[in-house]
């Protein structure tokens, strides 16, 4: 059985299948302007999404981060490192053109219940 959380016309926020968790890409509320604010906003949303399926950041096994500008790497890491805790998941971070010019970061997470 596949459980789709908050499905929309194009994607579900979270999909759970056979104990595996996959999120859609998460971007910040565009009132958040700087990379630190956007990173915190995205990580807060991620925690909220995970809580909807009874999971937390400790359930994340892999995280994918896209940055619109790799010069934001260190500032993003300062927020991420404070958030991630002592059991970090596998992670990749790449530079990419995001869906809107004001988006500075997008995160997708994968995990296990």
UniProtKB/TrEMBL annotation:
Coiled coil: none annotated. InterPro entries: RutC-like_sf, YjgF/YER057c/UK114, YoaB-like. SUPFAM superfamilies: YjgF-like. Gene3D superfamilies: RutC-like. This is RidA family protein. It comes from Pseudomonas urmiensis. The lineage of its organism: Bacteria, Pseudomonadati, Pseudomonadota, Gammaproteobacteria, Pseudomonadales.
């Amino acid at each position: 059985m596949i459980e789709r959380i908050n499905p929309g016309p194009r994607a579900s926020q979270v999909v759970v299948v056979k104990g595996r968790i996959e999120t859609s890409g998460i971007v910040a509320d565009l009132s958040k302007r700087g990379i630190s604010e956007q990173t915190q906003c995205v990580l807060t949303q991620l925690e909220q999404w995970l809580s909807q399926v009874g999971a937390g950041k400790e359930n994340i096994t892999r995280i994918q981060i896209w940055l619109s500008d790799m010069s934001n790497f260190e500032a993003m890491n300062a927020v991420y490192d404070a958030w991630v805790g002592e059991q970090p998941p596998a992670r990749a971070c790449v530079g990419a053109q995001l869906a809107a010019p004001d988006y500075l970061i997008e995160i997708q997470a994968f995990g296990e219940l």
